[in-house]
Amino acid sequence: MVIKVYIATSSGSTSIKKQQQDVMGFLAANKIEFEECDIAANEVNRKWMRENIPEESRPATGNPLPPQIFNENKYCGNYEAFFDAREDNAVYAFLGLTAPPGSKEAEALAKKAQQ
């Protein structure tokens, strides 16, 4: 299973650039393999991303903005959803991955199971 992060390499928005760096930096720091899919330079990526974001996750107006995160073809969420999962120590669950032993998320799950 490959985590795919849809980004725009030529975004003029500082906010979008920071969000993209935040997601990819976190994944790299936690040794979670991922693939960058550029929607600015690749029309196929842009079209695929827009077509595969569920209707309920789309903005009311306009197109969904990067970063958008998928596990293979399964939509995980946008930056806000990723940020919330990170705050809750639930990024692996958000990504549809098993938390590695010793991670905060694995420890929280073990603690929950004991209750």
UniProtKB/TrEMBL annotation:
Top-rank taxon, per record: Eukaryota
Keyword annotations: Cell membrane, Cytoplasm, Membrane, SH3-binding
Keyword ATP-binding annotated: no
Pfam families in alphabetical order: SH3BGR
Record has Cytoplasm as a keyword: yes
Localization: Cell membrane; Cytoplasm, Cytosol
One GO CC term on file: cytosol
Residues passing through the membrane, by range: none
GO MF annotations in UniProt: SH3 domain binding
Subunit structure, as described in the record: Monomer. Interacts with PFN1/Profilin-1. Interacts with ERBB2. Interacts with ATG12. Interacts with BECN1. Interacts with translating ribosomes.
Protein family: Belongs to the SH3BGR family.
Protein purpose: Appears to function as an adapter protein that bridges proteins together or proteins with mRNAs. May function as a ubiquitin ligase-substrate adapter. Additionally, associates with translating cytoplasmic ribosomes and may promote the expression of specific mRNAs.
PANTHER family linked: ADAPTER SH3BGRL, SH3 DOMAIN-BINDING GLUTAMIC ACID-RICH-LIKE PROTEIN
Identification of the protein by name: SH3 domain-binding glutamic acid-rich-like protein
Encoding gene (name): sh3bgrl
